[in-house]
From TrEMBL:
Keywords: Oxidoreductase. InterPro entries: KR_dom, NAD(P)-bd_dom_sf, Sc_DH/Rdtase_CS, SDR_fam. It holds the Pfam family adh_short. This is SDR family NAD(P)-dependent oxidoreductase. Belongs to the short-chain dehydrogenases/reductases (SDR) family. GO terms for cellular component: membrane. It comes from the Bacteria. Residues 7-207 form the Ketoreductase domain. GO terms for molecular function: oxidoreductase activity.
C-alpha cells in the first residue's frame, strides 16, 4: 500500500480485461476495493478470485451510462468499504469503424460509455470527495485518442473527448483537492483487441502488465501516464507530426493495417 492512497478504491469495468487484472493487483496490495461492472456473472467471478476480505471488498452490478444507478452503486459500495478516495474509471467499449456502412449508433454507444460513463462515475463519487477535501480520479483514455485512427475513428473520437474532458475538469477539481490522472495504454490483449483483424501480429501488453501501470498511476498520481514506453514515444511523435505528414502516413499505412476493408 502507498501512503498517497487514502480511502477505498472504486473501479469500474472490473469484470474483464485491464479492470479485472487491476482489481486483482490492488487486492493483493491490501487496498479496500469497490468493484463495479455491468457483467454480473463475471464480476462475481472476480470477487470470488479475490476471496473473503472483511470490510475491504464490495461490488455492485451497474451500467456506467446510468447516472442514478451509478449513484446507488457508489452508495452501496461505500457503505461496505468506506468512502472512495480513488476512482479508477476503466469501463469502456471499442469497435472498428468500417466503411461503406458507417455506423453512427456505434459512435453514440462509445461516446455514451467511454465519455458520459466516466462523467457519471465521477459525478457519483465527487460530492463525497469534495466534502472530505480530496480524492483522485484516474481515467483510462488511449493512445488511439491522440490522433484519429483510420480504422477506429469512433473509438479515437471517444477517447479524444475523454482526454479533453478530464483536462478541462482538472483545474476545478484541483481547487477542491481532487487530482486527475489520464492514462494512455497502448495495445493490451483483452476482449476489446482480441478479435481485431490485424494483417500482421501486433505487440500487445498482457492485462497484468497494464494493471501494474495502473497501480503506479493510483499510487503516484501523475498527471498523465502512457505505456508501454514505445506507445508513450509514439504518442509524442503523433502529436508533433504535421497534419499533412500524418495524413500521408495514414493514406498509405492505414489500409494495410487490417485484413478487412475500411
Ligand atoms: N485493450 C486495449 O488495448 C486498450 C488500450 C487503450 C485503452 N483501453 C481502455 O481500457 C479500458 C478497459 O478496456 P479492456 O481492454 O480491459 O476492455 P474489456 O476487456 O472489454 O473490459 C471492459 C470492461 O468494462 C465493462 N463495461 C463496458 N461497458 C460498460 C458499462 N456501460 N457499464 C459498466 N461496465 C461496462 C465490460 O463489460 P462487458 O464485458 O459486459 O462489456 C468489461 O467488463 C477501456 O476504457 C478501454 O477503452 C484499452
Amino acid at each position: 500500500m502507498s501512503g498517497r492512497v487514502s480511502g477505498a478504491i472504486l473501479l469500474t469495468g472490473a469484470a474483464h480485461g485491464i479492470g479485472r487484472a487491476t482489481a486483482l493487483a490492488l487486492a493483493s496490495r491490501g487496498y479496500a476495493l469497490g468493484l463495479i461492472d455491468r457483467d454480473a456473472e463475471a464480476l462475481a467471478g472476480v470477487v470470488g478470485e479475490i476471496g473473503e476480505r472483511e470490510g475491504a471488498l464490495s461490488f455492485r452490478v451497474s451500467d456506467v451510462t446510468d447516472l442514478d444507478a451509478m449513484r446507488e452503486a457508489v452508495l452501496g459500495v461505500e457503505s461496505a468499504v468506506g468512502p472512495t478516495g480513488t476512482l479508477v474509471a476503466c469501463a469502456g467499449i471499442g469497435s472498428l469503424t468500417l466503411l461503406p456502412d458507417l455506423d453512427p449508433a456505434a459512435l453514440r454507444a462509445m461516446l455514451d460509455v467511454n465519455v458520459v460513463g466516466v462523467a457519471n462515475a465521477i459525478a457519483a463519487v465527487l460530492p463525497g470527495m469534495i466534502a472530505r477535501g480530496g480524492g483522485h480520479v484516474v481515467g483510462i483514455s488511449s493512445v488511439a485518442g491522440v490522433r484519429g485512427m483510420p480504422w477506429m475513428a469512433s473509438y479515437s473520437a471517444s477517447k479524444a473527448a475523454l482526454t479533453t474532458y478530464l483536462e478541462g475538469l482538472r483545474p476545478a477539481l484541483k481547487r477542491r483537492g481532487v487530482s486527475v490522472t489520464t492514462v494512455y495504454p497502448g495495445f493490451v490483449r483483452t476482449a476489446m483487441t482480441e478479435g481485431t483483424p490485424f494483417r500482421r501480429p501486433v505487440p500487445m501488453l498482457e492485462p497484468e502488465q497494464a494493471a501494474a501501470q495502473l497501480v503506479r498511476a493510483i499510487e503516484r498520481r501523475p498527471r498523465d501516464l502512457a505505456f508501454p514506453m514505445s506507445a508513450a514515444l509514439g504518442m509524442g511523435l503523433l502529436r508533433r507530426l504535421p497534419n499533412r505528414v500524418y495524413d500521408r502516413m495514414m493514406d498509405r499505412a492505414g489500409p494495410r493495417a487490417l485484413t478487412v476493408d475500411f
